[in-house]
Each structure stands twice: as C-alpha cells, then as structure tokens.
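Colleagues,

Please find the record for the two-part complex below.
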Amino acid sequence: MTTIHIAKTSRWFGNVVAVNDVTMDIRPGVTGLLGPNGAGKSTLIHMMSGFLAPSSGAVTLDERPIWRNAAAYREIGLVPEREGMYDYLTGGEFVLANAELHGLPDPGAAARRALDTVDMTGAADRRISTYSKGMRQRVKMASALVHDPSVLLLDEPFNGMDPRQRMHLMDLLRTMGDEGRTVLFSSHILEEVEQLATHIEVIVAGRHAASGDYRRIRRLMTDRPHRYLVRSSDDRALAAALIADPSTSGIEFDAAERALRVQAVDFGRFTTRLPLLARDNGIRLLTVSPSDESLESVFSYLVSA
Amino acid sequence: MSAIYNPTVARLTYRALLGRRRALILLSLPALLLVIAVAVRALAGVDDRAATEILGGFALASMVPLIGVIAGTGAIAPEIDDGSIVYLLSKPLDRRTIILTKLWVAIGVTVAFTTVPILVAGLILNGNSQQIATAFAVAAGVASIAYSAVFLLLGTVSRNAVVFGLVYALIWEALFGSLVPGARTLSVQQWSLALAERIAADGADITSDVALPTAVIFLAAATVLGTWYAGERLRALTMANDE
C-alpha cells in the first residue's frame, strides 16, 4: 500500500504557472485526474513520476521524495502519454528490456506475465512500428506492470483508443485498484473518469478545483447555474411565466438576438417545466440551446465554486 | 557506487545506432575513404605524401568527426527527442550508468568505423611506410573517444545536437582551425594529430600545433568533463511540458 503525497506544490515554467499550490493525496484504488487540456495534469504527473522537480512544495511516495530518487521506480509503473517507444524492437523485446532494466531476477518470466496481463502475447513477436494505437498502449501498460509496482501512473491512457480497447483497459485498471495498488490516470473527459475512478481530483488552470467521489463531482457539475438561449413565438410572455417558476434565477431579453437568455438554477426542474409552461401559455418554442455546455465552462464554474 | 555499464542500455543503443539508415551513413564515409585510397594507389602509385594528405586531410579531419557526430549524438538524442528515454529513466538505475554505457557504445562504434578503414586505407596507399597508417589509426582511435564524449554531451543538452555537431566538425575543425591559429589549440583533431606526429617517422611530415603533453591533457579533460556533465544533465532532465 503506497500513497503519493502532494503538499503545497507549485510548478512554474518561466513566468507561466502550470501547477498552483496543489495539495492532495493519491491513495490505493483508482483515482481519476480530471481537467481540461492544458490544466496542468501532465505537469502534475511528471512531478509524481520524478521527471520534474516541484518549484515549491513536495511530492513524496509515502515519505520519500520522488525527484532524483531512482529507487522510487521500484514502486512506480509509468505509462507516458508520448508515443516514442523504441519502434525498432518487437513488443516482446521492449517489455523484456524494461524487465531487465528493473534488475528483476527472472526478466523473461516477468515480461511474459506482463504481456499476458495486457493480452499481447500473440503480437509480442511483431515490431512495435507495426502496432495500432491500442496495441502500443497495451505494450506500454505491460512495460509499466512488468515489475509489479504498487503505484501506476497513466497520462491520458484512453486517448485514441477504440471503445473495445477502452473497456479492456478500464477492466484492467479496475482490477489493479481492487488489488490495492495506487492507480492514477488523467483524462479530460468526465464520462471516462466517472466510469472508472472511485475518487476524482479535478484540476483547472493549474489549481486543485475539486476532490471527492464521482457522485459529488457530478452533482457539483449539474447543480451549477445553466444558461440557455431560448427563442419562442412570444418571448416576453414566456419570460414572465419562467421568472415566476423557482427553477430560474434570471432572465434577460436580448433584443439584438431576439431571444431570451435564461439562467436556470435547478437543471432538472427547468428542463421539464419549460415545455409545460410554454404549452400552458400557448407559446411555441423555436430554439432552446444551452449556451455554456462546454467542458471548460463546467470546469471554470468548479473553480469559482 | 553506480555501475559503469548496463547491458540492456547497451543493446538498445547499439540497435538504435546500427539499425535503420544510420548504419548506411556510418558505412558510406569509410567506403569513400577506401575508394579514394584504391584510386590514388592505382593512379599515382605508392606515395607517402599522398597517404598523409588523405589520412590527415580527409580521414582525420572530416570522416572521424562526422562519424563521431553520428554515433555520439545518435546514442542519445533521438531517444530524448521522441520521449522514449523515459523508459530508461523510469528505472531504478543511476542515470550516470546510462550515460557511461552510451559512451562505451558510441566509442565502440566510432572506433570501429574509423580506425579499421584508416588502417586499411593506409596499407593500400603506402603499405604503412613510415608508420603513417598506424599513426593515423591511433590518432583516430583517441579522437573517437573524445568526440564520442563531446557529442554525447551535445546530444544530451541540445535538441539540435546534430546541427551543432556538424557545425563543429566541419566549420570549427576544418575551416576555422586553418584560418585562426588559436582555434587549433581547442581542436580534437589537433590533439590527436600530436599523437600521430609522435608515432609516425619524422619524414612523414605530420605536424600538430599542440605539444603532446598538452594534447593528452586536453583529450582526457574533454572526455572526462564531457561525460561527467552529460551525466549531470541527464540526472536533471525534465520532461518538456507538452501542454
């Protein structure tokens, strides 16, 4: 059982702050690191995997620092996001080389076991350059698992995978988590994270925005005020009916757009009430479109919350 | 206490260097040298002066540094470029061991691809008369060690290692050195020439601008410092922020 502690950690590049005063513990089980692209997820993972020194604060494996501590890699398995991986080797040679580099007593057996775990035994004799994206990802997994690490760090592991490969990897990571390993993966897709992670850490613009189980994060995300653009046969009458309903908190009549800008506070109630109100008042709805559904706006709401 | 050699790192490095197109480039220059040697011998007969000029002017001045650039930077720069170096670095392995192993491989490749063809070319040109072939082969061997260390360092610190290496090999060593006398003091080629000068007979007309003791000190210093600093840089290597 190993825990990664991130304590008041910041990392800046020149005058760009990539990670800003983050404190979190990554415990055994599967943790999802969620955030939009460019939020600092990779920077955080690079610090957890010993490839970046924190500019301030400390990143430790249990109580031992990770930066400049090669012994930490006995416990860490890393699946990097980048594709470079000795394409001139076969998958089998690649995993075997990783086993040897770990100094394992029987690297051949360890490599075979790891290849079997990711279901790549059949393709182990083919050169990596001939592999599909999903196969490369699985061989990377095998190389990270070859020394049976207690910590597994994966940077955007599902990128470019087809649904079947994705399910296979999710099953594998779930098993790893159930076995008591500390599994951390990053993603910018909420659905991906909530399918797999029991615990979610949200990073936005370098800051730690939220932390908890996925139900809490999901609620935070759906409970936020939603904005809609609504056009109808009688905007003013509809506005009057909507503001009388507790599901809305504000309505603006946008003369230029000839539309209503509605702020809903109770997402579920608003979506069921809106068509009923329109029908009751004999109003035809022409347009109902959410105006801030992008992931970025969800995240920025989380940061300000 | 760190190991000075790791067989797995060596195997990966050899395969990177000797696989693919690199092996062809590595082979083309020695092949060219042998073609020149055969042609000169056939057309002009045995001529010590021609031997000195070809082995000194082409082999030691151009071929050795070029092969040094390819082997030295090629031993590490591509891995840093495409990110595959993480698979070496994320292991309980002293990073100085990685650098030292890569140095041995780069030296081995450079020595093999320079000393052997130089010796053969020298035998073809004048049958090793006045020890000219031996002198240049030894000089190439020593230069290979220093070049490997210097270019391995370059490959570790710079993303444009090959370009800088070529600029050094072609402009500094070949051109600048002949125009600016001071530049010759800081030239691997001149240091190794000092050794060749000592080995060859006096009539061979091999001269270096650097005295032998100075040359040996400079060669050793460049090799040791280059390797040490490359190790330090690899220990502090951080992943570029891709985001």
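Residues 42 and 125 of chain B are 9 Å apart (CA to CA).

Comments are welcome before we finalize the supplementary table.
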